[in-house]
Amino acid sequence: MYKPSDKTSWRGRTDLPDGGLGQRWHQVVQVVDLSSEIPSGGGNVAFLGFCCDEGVRRNQGRVGAAAGPDAIRQAMSPFAEHLPDGAQLFEAGDVICPNQQLEEAQVQLGRKVELLLKKGYRPLLLGGGHETAYGHFLGIRTFLKEGEKLGIINFDAHFDLRSVEPFPSSGTPFLQIAQDLEKAGQPFHYFCLGIQEYGNTRKLFQTADQLGAEYITAQALQSEEKNSHLFQIKSFIQKVDRLYVSIDLDVFAAAFAPGVSAPTSLGLFPQDFLPLLREILNSGKVLSMDVVELNPIFDSDHRTAKLAASLIYQMVEAWR
Question: What Gene3D superfamilies has UniProt attached to this entry (predicted)?
């Protein structure tokens, strides 16, 4: 279920006459094989793919997100290298989901996330459907120190708090997380940004309220109350010790992100999103992140992949 990288997705132009000053991401990213001993990460970012859309299929969405990780890598490859001195990028391969074995793939993903964290890397997961989130959490949970409070910030048009009956899917990960935390006697700190009222039933809003989840709708985020939203984010961050940040690309307007499992016509503009992301990253509490739901099959002119890659560029630059 784990496939080490051979770096074939990392390719792009080279500017040989410019030497070291002309390097791009595909030239500087280094491969680590998580099936063998790996060096210390030194606080650097490691990309790990989750090639899975079984959860999307179960959730009756548009399948194709399993090809998302490679599409994001290809979009990141030509980026000019402006990393701070000493910073490095690492490619950690993919966890795959053969034969619709979602639950086993999520467990495997958790193990790889835990390994990266223990070795001192900053995992940045490339989805894959939003079922990525539960596997991601499994790895974070085992890494956290006793008593540390985890906060989850999810940029998403949907709560993803659906019932796990008859089976888990891309619509259930955060309810699964809430249930796991409840069993362990731990609080569920969940903040969802970009919610679309028309995309979430009354039951989902009720579930969010019962779990004590916080949220801001997409329409509110697009209003003029920017300082109010930043204050809400700061207040949430102050309550927790570590942050897991998940970005579902369907939070963005379909004009920017047509290639997702569930497009959103009136979603966020990237310019609305970036100040919020910077506020979160500046907290110094972000432990791990993912970008999910890229579906290359429906991605006109690779717009969604380019958006995902550009967001990741900003994340890598600001994640300290």
Answer: Ureohydrolase domain
